[in-house]
Amino acid sequence: MSHTIHEKTKLLNRVRRLRGQMEAVERALEQERSCSDVLQLIAGVRGAINGLMAEIVEDHILMHVSNEKLQQNERNEGAAELIDVVRAYLK
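^ that's the sequence the OP posted. Answer follows.
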């Protein structure tokens, strides 16, 4: 079972909070609030998305890379998937 399915409710709640934060950015732009206010909202969104990413990466490492119950080829595949994601994330 995938860890994202196991933690589905918790992860979906985080995504819903992120959606709310993005809607706050949209409202701020529509209301022509100051750039400082908008930047603060965006910084909050960035922090939240980074937190979500960190949580899923951590779970991926625990479930698909360092899990000694898996065969070595499965662990290697989990590591390769993580490397691809990290490279895309850092671009």
